[in-house]
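Tokenised fold entry reproduced for everyone:
>
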Amino acid sequence: MTGGLKRAIVTGGSGGIGSAICRRLAADGFHVLVHANRQPLTAQEVVADIVAKGGSAQACVFDITDAPATTAALEKLLEDGPIQVVVNNAGIHDDAVFPGMQAAQWHRVIDVSLNGFFNVTQPLMLPMIRTRWGRIVNITSVAGLAGNRGQVNYAAAKGALHSAAKALSLEVASRGITVNAVAPGIIETAMSQGSFDAKAVAQMVPAKRVGRPDEVAGLVSYLVSEEAAYITGQVISINGGMI
């Protein structure tokens, strides 16, 4: 039971940034659907932590690259009512310089970020539109704005999510639904661990430090709030001044 709370789904909710977003949205008063694919136990731990702190959450496990499985899972979740906040956070990177990139590396990265966005968001749109209120946030990357060597696939996927957010925002703005993208820079997570030492961070980031997952979560919290109702179709980077 959600007790009449608005429901939010966070894909990749078991990861570093995703779990921070889940915890923050629960603290904001949403019933949070913590999505996972390969880390269902971690998702359950996030749920348990949220509930222990007085929040409302449940785990949901499916592969967002599997369209039929995703549709079936979402239909089951929609039986309890519309999902009015969608945070498309799930993503992977599989780096290689482009001349040496394998087709599987290209397709896998695109499949999770871009096709996953479609597979999750599209089935939720009509129920959301009927409520005349909704928030969609795509978690992308500074790589989608500035590019990055060895990440042509990743940059392409994240850049496409920027364009998708801008286009979708035009379709649903009159229905009380906002669509934005949040493009983090270097954030302290397991995914980024070991990729940048302190010297590299000092050279790349004017703020001279990496960002924290809770800082990204704070921005998402604002974008899904009532106060941000007039912000839509925007790509907002959180990167310590990198670009």
